[in-house]
Design a protein that fits this description.
Chain A: InterPro entries: AAA+_ATPase (IPR003593), ABC_transporter-like_ATP-bd (IPR003439), P-loop_NTPase (IPR027417). Chain A: This is Protein involved in gliding motility GldA. Chain A: Belongs to the ABC transporter superfamily. Chain A: GO terms for molecular function: ATP binding; ATP hydrolysis activity. The complex is a heterodimer of chains A (235) and B (242). Chain A has 235 residues and is of the alpha/beta class. Chain A folds into two domains: 159 residues, Rossmann fold; 63 residues, no CATH class. In chain A, strands 6-7-8-3-9-10 form a six-stranded mixed β-sheet, with helices on both faces. The radius of gyration of chain A is 18 Å and the shape is globular. The longest helix of chain A is centred in the C-terminal third of the chain and has 15 residues. Chain B contains 13 helices and no strands. Chain B has one domain. The longest helix of chain B is centred in the middle third of the chain and has 28 residues. By secondary structure, chain B is mostly helical. The chains are: A alpha/beta (235), B mainly alpha (242). The interface between A and B is medium-sized, with 27 and 21 residues.
Chain lengths: 235, 242
């Protein structure tokens, strides 16, 4: 159940948002997808989830092509989009039941209960989503991504706007998920990469500038500071 | 697809808009049919429902877009469409689920008006003297007309993130489809151009069904009309330009 990206490109008019990128992610190793704002992280992730059509190249998730076998691919995919869009007029439990129903899961009630416990939404489960704080909304976002126990997880900036306590909780959760699933997460917080990721892919202006294991990257650049490496590669 | 349909229907029923729309529809049609002397059936002297069936399309021109305006416009504004698009659902399933949710509400709006039918049946001389076939035809026609306007409304909603623009555009397009083509046809002398415009007019096909004759040509017209607008919606949504 790996993610394979080959020569993926997306062009908007003259501008190349993503330019011929290739990389691979494997189960059990969390892949950190880094890059400055506007480097093409979200565009790449949207192509991986089949939401956007690539201009060229292809990607496959768990062997399913994102364009040709889109529906099968989406069954094994959990996706947390950027800015965590949610139906804020729904109640937490109602929303998660709706998501479970879109996968036609058996016993959706039990699945919803499980996932609420897993992301720590117990006390908030009867509230309207619009009433929740940013951190809890983020948890609902994660819950909708993992409710069907996907083999592959794509998380677009999963920890923006969280306070330090919430940060620790969510990171712990992602680390646990990463043990047996293939996880790609995008971020520009370097401590997060240190805390969570095994493999690092850095993109800048749509092109890949680094793709290696975290410790290999450090030895290669003769420094322990990821921040320094990031700056030297993207500046 | 059923999950999305259910969510859409519940969210419409939670949003007040559905109650206002159905309420206004019943209030206005009730007032015009039974209370205002100029248009009242009681003053008119004939126990028939034609007044209602010529009034309802005009109410639909304004009320159906009010039901459909948020369907895609809100998803665009809130960025929530990606939540649906990353599930194992095709674009068509999502569009149809939203469409049928709106259509269900149109049916909810029409059900109480069966009371008018019952009242008039009781008022007829002798009792029960009403052309049931024509009424049934008119109701089917009204439902298809509502379906056609809902397709226009869903399409308009997919074009913009602004619900007000979606509403205005849908009202305009529905009006053109209902009366505009008729009026255009009248510019020409009887002949082929007039026939084409008259054939394009929703009103023409609705009138034809109101006579109580279920002509397959009218059915084909309405189904083609709906598929055309839903197909255009699919093009807009599938393009992901937003």
């Amino acid at each position: 159940m790996s993610i394979q990206v080959e020569g993926l490109s997306k062009t908007y008019g003259q501008q190349k948002a993503v330019d011929n990128i290739s990389f691979k992610a494997v189960p059990g190793k969390v892949l950190g997808f880094l890059g400055p704002n506007g480097a093409g992280k979200s565009t790449t992730m949207r192509m991986l989830t089949g939401y956007l059509k690539p201009t060229a190249g292809s990607a496959s998730l768990g062997g399913f092509d994102t364009q040709r076998q889109s529906l099968e691919m989406r069954r094994i995919l959990g996706y947390l989009p950027e800015n965590t869009p949610l139906y804020t007029d729904m109640y937490v439990r109602e929303f998660l039941t709706f998501i479970a129903d879109t996968y036609q899961l058996e016993k959706p009630g039990i699945k919803v209960k499980e996932v609420i416990g897993r992301v720590g939404l117990g006390d908030e489960q009867h509230k309207k989503i619009s009433m929740l704080s940013k951190g809890y909304k983020q948890r609902v976002g994660l819950a909708q991504a993992i409710i069907h126990d996907p083999r592959i997880l794509i998380l677009d900036e999963p920890t923006t706007g969280l306070d330090p306590n919430q940060l620790t909780d969510i990171r712990e959760l992602i680390r646990n998920l990463g043990k047996d699933k293939t996880v790609i997460l995008s971020t520009h917080i370097m401590q997060e990469v240190e805390a969570l990721c095994d493999q690092v892919v850095i993109i800048n202006k749509g092109k890949i500038v680094a793709d290696s294991l975290l410790n290999e990257l450090k030895t290669k650049h003769h420094t322990d500071s990821l921040e320094e490496i990031f700056r030297s590669l993207t500046n | 697809m059923y999950a999305v349909f259910k969510r859409e229907l519940f969210s419409l029923l939670n949003s007040m808009m559905a109650y206002i729309t159905i309420g206004v529809f019943l209030l206005v049609s009730g007032l015009l049919l039974w209370f205002f002397p100029d248009t009242s059936i009681l003053e008119y002297g004939y126990a028939e429902l034609n007044g209602f069936f010529s009034l309802a399309p005009f109410l639909f021109i304004f009320l159906v877009p009010a039901l459909t305006m948020r369907s895609f416009a809100e998803e665009r504004r809130e960025g929530t469409y990606v939540l649906l698009a990353s599930r194992p659902l095709t674009d068509w399933q999502i569009i149809l689920a939203k469409y049928f949710a709106c259509l269900t509400l149109i049916i909810f709006a029409l059900i109480p008006t069966l009371l008018y039918y019952y009242s008039i049946m009781q008022l007829g001389m002798p009792k029960g003297n009403i052309d049931g076939g024509a009424v049934a035809g008119s109701y089917i026609g009204l439902l298809l007309l509502g379906g056609a306007f809902a397709a226009i409304g869903i399409f308009a909603s997919s074009l913009t993130k602004n619900q007000v623009i979606a509403f205005a555009l849908a009202v305009f397009l529905s009006f053109i489809a209902y009366s505009g083509f008729d009026a255009l046809g009248k510019i020409f002398a009887p002949g082929i151009p007039e026939d084409i415009f008259v054939w394009l007019s929703v009103n023409e096909h609705f009138q034809s069904m109101s006579r109580g004759v279920l002509d397959t040509r009218d059915l084909v017209y309405f189904i083609t009309f709906m598929l055309l607008f839903l197909g255009m919606t699919k093009l807009v949504i599938g393009g992901r330009k937003w």
